[in-house]
Amino acid sequence: MSPACGMVTDGGFSIIEINPMEGRMRYLVVVSVFFFMLVMGVFATAQADGRGVYVKCIGCHGVDGSKHALNVSPPIKGQSAGELERKLFGYLDGSFGGDKKIVMTNVLKKLSEEDIREVSKYVSEF
């Protein structure tokens, strides 16, 4: 037995006494490990994932990128990752886009550069 535990017998029953501090430490360790794993899972999920980013695009571009967004732009399906990146970053810096580019600009402002690269790679595989 550890020094924190002791065994007391009481009329034939064995009672194990645990130092309250040891119980609290064990609880803190378990809770800390749980939160560490939770946070790591959140960070792993938060990292750029092209498929996860593209979910926001399906309404206008379709599940496979073959839809004419807002009945104006050509489908994005079949474009290379480099071409898509150039266009997406072009929306942000004002060097690309037509009359309705504000729609794309507002969407892209919420994404990181890594998100844009990952979604470009993802869409290029359609």
From TrEMBL:
Q: Which GO terms describe its molecular function?
A: electron transfer activity; heme binding; metal ion binding
Recorded hits in InterPro entries, A to Z, give: Cyt_c-like_dom, Cyt_c-like_dom_sf
Q: What keywords appear on the UniProt entry?
A: Heme, Iron, Membrane, Metal-binding, Transmembrane, Transmembrane helix
Which positions, given as ranges, span the membrane? 27-46
**Which superkingdom is the protein from?**
Bacteria
Please list the residue ranges annotated as the Cytochrome c domain.
Answer: 45-126
Q: What is this protein called?
A: Cytochrome c
